[in-house]
Amino acid sequence: MSIPLNSQEVLDREYLEIRGKILELAASLDRLERAEGCVNEDNRMSLIRQGLQILLQDANESKASQIQMLFSRVFEDNWREKFNL
Amino acid sequence: MYYFDPHIHMVSRTTDDYETLAKMGCVGMSEPAFWAGFDRGSVDSFRDYFRQLTDFEPKRAAQYGIQHYTWLCINAKEAENVELSREVIKMIPEFLDKPNVLGIGEIGLNKNTKNESTIFLEHMELAIEYNQQILIHTPHLADKYQGTRMILDMLTADSRVDPSRVLVDHVEEHTAKEVLERGFWAGMTLSPVTKCTPQRAADIIELCGAERLLVNSAGDWGPSKPTAVPDLILEMRRRGHSEALIRQVVYDNPIAFFSQSQNFTFTHPE
Ligand SMILES: [Zn+2]
Fold this sequence. Notes:
The structure holds two protein chains of two kinds.
Chain A: H1 7-34, H2 43-56, H3 63-70, H4 79-83
Chain B: E1 3-5, H1 15-23, E2 26-32, H2 43-62, E3 67-72, H3 82-91, E4 101-108, H4 114-129, E5 133-137, H5 144-156, E6 166-169, H6 176-181, E7 185-189, H7 198-208, E8 213-216, H8 228-239, H9 243-258
Parallel strand pairs in B: 1-2, 2-3, 3-4, 4-5, 5-6, 6-7, 7-8
Zinc ion binds next to loops of chain B.
C-alpha cells in the first residue's frame, strides 16, 4: 500500500517540520562542542556521525530501518547455546 | 470512530482518563500485566495486582462504557528473579477463569538475559498447557532487535505455539516485517519518548499493509499519552487513507485477534 499523498504534498506538509528537526540537531551538536571536555572517543559520537551519513544516502533500503539497525545490539544466532537453553 | 486500545496500562491512569478515552471513541481495551516501576517482594503482591486487573479495573472501565480485558504474567524485568517468577507462574491459573482474562502477557525480554529467557519459556509452557493466547513485550531501544529475534526463535522452535494466537508488541521499522512474515500479529506502541510516533506508525502501515497489524498507546506510568490511538486515526485521515483501512487497524484487527480467546465476549456498540 502506498501513501495517498504525492511527494509535493508531503514536502509542503513537512518542510517546516524537517527544517525544525535539522535545526534541533545542529543546536545539539553546537552544545556538545561548547561544553567543556571531549567526547570524541565516546562510541555514541561515532554512531551519531554514522547516523547522519545514512540520512544523506540515496539508498533503496529504508533510512529509518538503517538507523534502527545502526543503534541496535547485534543478534547472534547461537544465543541459545551460549545460554545453555 | 470507535476504537479498541489493545495495550494500555489503566492501573497507572486516573478515572478522568477513562472519561477522556470514552469521549474519544474508545469502547474496548486490553491491559497486559507489567512492571510497577519497582520490583515487588512477594507472590501475594502479584495476587493483589491480578485482583486489581480482573476485578477493579473492569468495573472502573464499565462506568464509561468501556469493555476491559486483561493478560496475566510476571513481566520481563522482574523475571530476573527466577524464584519469585516461578511462584507467580504457579499462582496464575487461579485467575485464568476470570471473565476478562484473555491470556498470558505481556511476557518477553528486557535486557535479553538468560534468566529472562528461562522465564519466557516457562510462561510459554503455561500458555500451552492452558490453551491461552500470548501477548509479548519486546525490549526497547538498542535491545529491541536482538530481543525480538530471540523471542521469535523461542516461539517458532516450539511447534505447539500457533503464531496466529500470539501478538508481538512494540514493533518498529526494523522488526515489524519479520514478525508479520512469520505469521504473528504485530502491535505498534505510540509513545512520545522512545518508541513510535503516529507518523512513523502510519509509515509502517503503508509499508507492511494493515493485515494483522495493531496500534496501541501503552499508556503506562512513564511519559505516555493514553489518547495516542486517536492521534494515529487523525494522521491517517490527514494522509487521505480510507475510513475502512483506519478502522481495520484500530478496531477490526484487535477484535479479530482477541476473538480467538474464549473469554472475549465483546459486544459492538453499534
Ligand atoms: Zn506494556
